[in-house]
Amino acid sequence: MKLLVTGGAGYIGSVCTARLVEAGHHVTVLDDLSTGHRDAVHPDARFIEARVHDAADHVDGSYDAVLHFAAKSLVGESVEKPELYWENNVVGSLQLINAVTAAGVGTMIFSSTAATYGAPDRTLIDESCPTMPVNPYGMSKLAVDMMLTAQAQAHGLAAVSLRYFNVGGAYGVFGERHATETHLVPNLLKVATGERNEAAIFGNDYPTRDGTCVRDYLHVVDLSDAHGLALDAATPGMHQVINLGTGTGYTVNDVLDAVRRGTGHEVPARLAERRPGDPAVLVASNAKAKDRLGWAPTRGLDDIVTDAWQFAQR
Ligand code: UFG
Fold this sequence. Notes:
Blueprint: E1 2-6, H1 11-22, E2 26-31, E3 46-49, E4 65-68, H2 75-80, H3 82-103, E5 107-113, H4 136-155, E6 158-164, E7 166-168, H5 184-193, E8 199-202, E9 214-215, E10 217-219, H6 220-233, E11 239-244, E12 250-251, H7 252-263, E13 269-272, E14 281-282, H8 287-293, H9 301-312
The structure holds uridine-5'-diphosphate-4-deoxy-4-fluoro-alpha-D-galactose.
Uridine-5'-diphosphate-4-deoxy-4-fluoro-alpha-D-galactose binds next to helix 5 and strand 8.
């Protein structure tokens, strides 16, 4: 297929681009390099440096599908500077969707997030769970999900929103290198490499097994491969919303143990204040992904740590 990947110079977009190229697709990456890296784009992908806001200049009817990763994605930043999230994630996505409609591209796969659910009190979050985002990042992604529902109804778009839980790991030379790193696994690895002295554990008085927050950690390669399956499952006139997670939750302490095991380093950690806005438990039901996509995760927390550790040492 001929595919346009927005945000293909970023972490998840670059891994997805690599997997799609290796599966034989013809990929063009559109990225403004605001947070991505030019050398993270697979060498066999074509590259356009542009904002999604200017998608109309670059999208034409020769594409079979658009995969839309380009977004701002820091929860804390979204609370402090919400306007950045409306402008980039909402306005930018609308411009892209308009370009897709005008060009007659039939399929769109969108990077949505568990943050659209907010802080539900269910043990396993499925797609029928009410969407009540608690920060502008989650709100901006939910707004785009809603645009896609309407676009499928009005114009027959085949749309799939994939709601990611906690993504980690790397794929060879493609991995996570954010200027501002807020995520748990890369931050623990910065301590293992010696770049930082100690890790911070944000709160140990949550109502969980050991008091630290529980998350569902999914390997970025498993996540990427779900996008290839979503291209096959996309159906004209339908907007499908599908969670991507493993269905298993790990506490922050579990992840710390896994990093100590996987790196062989001590990784000193201190207890810190709770981080505002962190829900206690977020674990996905992936029954719909299994049913609709025929997808199942093949890698676990130890693989995430091992692959991210190899990447961090490069
Ligand atoms: N944490 C620490 N120390 C750190 C970093 C994180 O204790 O240095 C804790 C957090 O408090 C949280 C857990 O580790 O309990 C995971 O935190 P991350 O920042 O790695 O991930 P989040 O669960 O906050 O965020 C992820 C995605 C977001 C998405 C969100 C959905 O990265 O894009 O899930 O709720 F919005």
